[in-house]
Design brief:
Elements lengths: L1 E2 L18 E4 L12 E2 L6 E7 L5 E8 L4 E9 L14 E5 L5 E3 L6 E5 L4 E12 L3 E8 L4 E7 L8 E2 L15 H5 L6 H10 L3 E7 L2 E2 L10 E7 L2 E7 L1
Parallel strand pairs: 1-8, 2-4, 3-5, 14-16
Antiparallel strand pairs: 3-13, 4-12, 5-11, 6-10, 6-12, 7-8, 7-11, 9-10, 14-15, 16-17
Length: 241
């Protein structure tokens, strides 16, 4: 069920701090969240920009957060014509799907000035909130009601963050455990492409389910292994372990 969040003491309004958001543009290949880029650390300050030319277009992206980290989300438009002339009722809808499956439609309930000093751009906040995060991958989907340009921002740390392209094998990675974001790059690949990528990166590759058939799996947790779910020869889910 899709819910509109109510601001409570657990859902705190974010102060007007001048963050230097790292820009990420959503394009025609980012139609769904699973086809969108993966923000490897959702606490890093990113500005995700979407340009819609007509109604019923969709864009999406994903962000990885750990338990007890802060989910910080902001919805903005540039404070200049034609953006600042948009009717609120005609603006795109942003829906956040939590790792647990809960969905929240971002409520547009303000119109506050914000100067982003890094780019020298004046924005208007239309909606924002913060809350303690669940562990896992958040999926953000944006659907247009008419032509519009918007920016949604996530995170608050002013450091350089890693953006992983969808269905693209990482060119290189640091030694260590497979991260949730790295595993998620396999989503959208064919079974053979996912196996090839895992082999290239020295990951163990395991199929947990394929076309609704569940396979018996060992209960050991391996930090160098990725377990995937496959539907119609495409990887639809991938997790470390």
């Amino acid at each position: 069920m899709v819910l509109t969040p109510v601001i409570t003491t657990a859902l705190l309004m974010q102060p007007q701090t001048a963050y230097a958001h790292q820009p990420v543009d959503l394009g025609l290949k980012n139609i769904t969240a699973d086809q969108g880029p993966i923000l490897a650390d959702g606490t890093v300050s990113f500005a995700i920009r979407a340009n819609f030319t007509k109604a019923n277009q969709t864009r999406g992206f994903r962000a990885v957060l750990k338990s007890s980290e802060l989910l910080n989300f902001e919805y903005l438009i540039v404070d200049r014509a034609p953006e600042n002339k948009y009717a609120m009722s005609k603006l795109p809808t942003a829906t956040i799907t939590y790792p647990s499956g809960k969905q929240v439609v971002v409520k547009l309930n303000e119109r506050s000035n914000f100067f982003e000093r890094y780019s020298g751009t004046n924005y208007l906040y239309l909606g924002r909130f913060s809350e303690t995060a669940e562990a896992g991958i958040y999926k953000i989907s944006i659907k247009s009601k008419s032509a519009a340009k918007i920016t949604v921002a996530i995170g608050q740390q002013e450091i350089r963050g890693q953006v992983l392209p969808a269905a693209t094998c990482p060119i290189s990675r640091a030694a260590g455990d497979i991260t949730l974001g790295e595993a998620a790059t396999l989503v959208g690949m064919s079974k053979s492409a996912g196996l090839e990528c895992a082999t290239k990166l020295n990951w163990q590759f395991r199929v947990g389910a394929e076309d609704d058939q569940q396979f018996a799996l060992t209960k050991d947790y391996r930090l160098d292994r990725v377990t995937v779910t496959i539907k119609n020869n495409l990887i639809t889910q991938a997790t470390p372990g």
